[in-house]
Design brief:
The chain folds into two domains: about 40 residues, no CATH class; about 130 residues, Immunoglobulins (Immunoglobulin-like). The protein has one helix and 13 strands, in the order H-E-E-E-E-E-E-E-E-E-E-E-E-E. The chain is about 10% helix and about 35% strand. It is mainly beta. A hairpin with a 4-residue loop joins strand 10 and strand 11.
Length: about 200
């Protein structure tokens, strides 16, 4: 009997998810049922919508000191790169969400070695930075700029934290192929604008 009750609760939950996800309201699902959480639309804390052409937006909120970018424009990139120790490499760039036309500020990222026979494949599982696997991690600043120094030469992919999962830096807003970053000894690599589908 208890098993049947659990199965019925699961069925009700699964049937209600499409209705809940299509609503603008926020719901909390508990063992006692589903209840609505009061909307926050009137206090400007709602999730931003995608911009229309020619508009400007600010993410996560205008109060964070983030400069909005006009759709179609690109953010300024860092002017210089740091000097690595002999035999190592450094890189710099600015994280840019082409889906929001916005820099990605104060966000965790990591550089992870490419895998596969030719060292040009993205790892199949992205669990977050692990220095034991040769990863380098950091946070973008308030302008979306990133810098990593003293990197072992090799092939890498840049992984950026999205609100739910990890996103991979891409070639461009028109080419969603993962960006393979090849670093040579003593190289100071300027990546410029780093495109990511974010969030």
């Amino acid at each position: 009997m208890k098993s049947l009750k659990i199965q019925l609760n699961v069925i009700v939950l699964l049937l209600s998810l499409p209705l809940i996800s299509c609503s603008r309201n926020i719901y909390l699902i508990t063992n006692a049922g589903t209840k609505e959480i009061p909307s926050t639309e009137n206090n400007n804390t709602t999730y931003p919508v995608l911009p229309s052409s020619g508009s400007t937006i600010s993410y996560p909120s205008p109060n964070k000191g983030i400069t909005p970018i006009t759709v179609g424009d690109l953010p300024p990139t860092p002017d210089n790169t740091i000097i690595p120790v002999s035999g190592k490499a450094s890189l710099s760039g600015v994280l840019f969400s082409y889906t929001l036309s916005q820099v990605v500020p104060d966000t965790r990222f990591y550089l992870t070695p490419a895998v596969g026979k030719d060292k040009n494949e993205v790892p199949s599982i992205l669990l977050g930075p692990n220095p034991n696997d040769g990863d380098y991690s950091g946070f973008s600043d308030e302008k979306g700029d990133i810098e990593i120094n003293n990197i072992e030469p090799g092939n890498y992919y840049l992984i950026i934290w999205s609100p739910i999962t990890w996103a991979i830096a891409e070639m461009s807003d028109q080419n969603q192929k993962p960006l393979l970053i090849i670093l040579e000894p003593n190289q100071r690599r300027k990546l410029g604008v780093i495109y990511v589908s974010w969030p």
